[in-house]
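Usage example:
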Amino acid sequence: DAKTTQPNSMESNEEEPVHLPCNHSTISGTDYIHWYRQLPSQGPEYVIHGLTSNVNNRMASLAIAEDRKSSTLILHRATLRDAAVYYCIPRSYNTDKLIFGTGTRLQVFP
Amino acid sequence: EPEVTQTPSHQVTQMGQEVILRCVPISNHLYFYWYRQILGQKVEFLVSFYNNEISEKSEIFDDQFSVERPDGSNFTLKIRSTKLEDSAMYFCASTPTLTSGRNEQFFGPGTRLTVL
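Running the assembly step on the lines above writes:
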C-alpha cells in the first residue's frame, strides 16, 4: 500500500482558495488517487478522485503531478462548512478497502 | 439523495456483552464495508462484504467479529464479547460496483460504541 504524507493542519480564510498537498511517492502506476474528508462528528465523505489527469467536480479540483508522486486538492472558495480533516488515499485496483492516514485538518476562519 | 443509515447512534454496553450494530446501505449498492475509528485515531478498515461473503478483512476483524446481511436491506456487525478497547465509532459504507479502484464509498453517520 502506498504511503502518504500530508500536513497535519492548514488554515484558510472564508472565500479564499485552499491548496491541500499530498505526497504519495510510492504510488503504483495503476493506483487511483482518492480524496475524502471527515467533517466534525460525521463519517468520511468522498470528495474527488483521479488517475493521471487533473479532475474537477462540484466540490473541488484535483491536480496530479506529472510523475504522480504528489497531488493537490483545491477548494476554490473555502466556506466554514469545509472545515474538516482531508484524507488523500491511493486506491489499488485489486482491493476495495480504503486505508486512511492522519490527514490534514483544515480550519476555515470567517 | 440516498444515504447510508446506521442505528443506534450511540450504544453503551458492559464488557463481555454482545452487541449488534445495524446499517442500511443505499438500496442498489452491492458492496458493503465496516470501518472503525477509536477516538482521536485513524479510520481503520475492518471488513468488506459482497454476495453474502466476506471479501476482505483486516487483522482487527478477529473471531469476535462477524457480519451478516440478514435480509435485502440490513447489514450488521456483531461483536460477540465486547472488550474495553472495542469502544470506537463504527462506520458502515457501501458502493454500487467495483471498478478497479475508481468507485467511491458512501459512509453512514456512524454508531458510537461505548464499552464499560
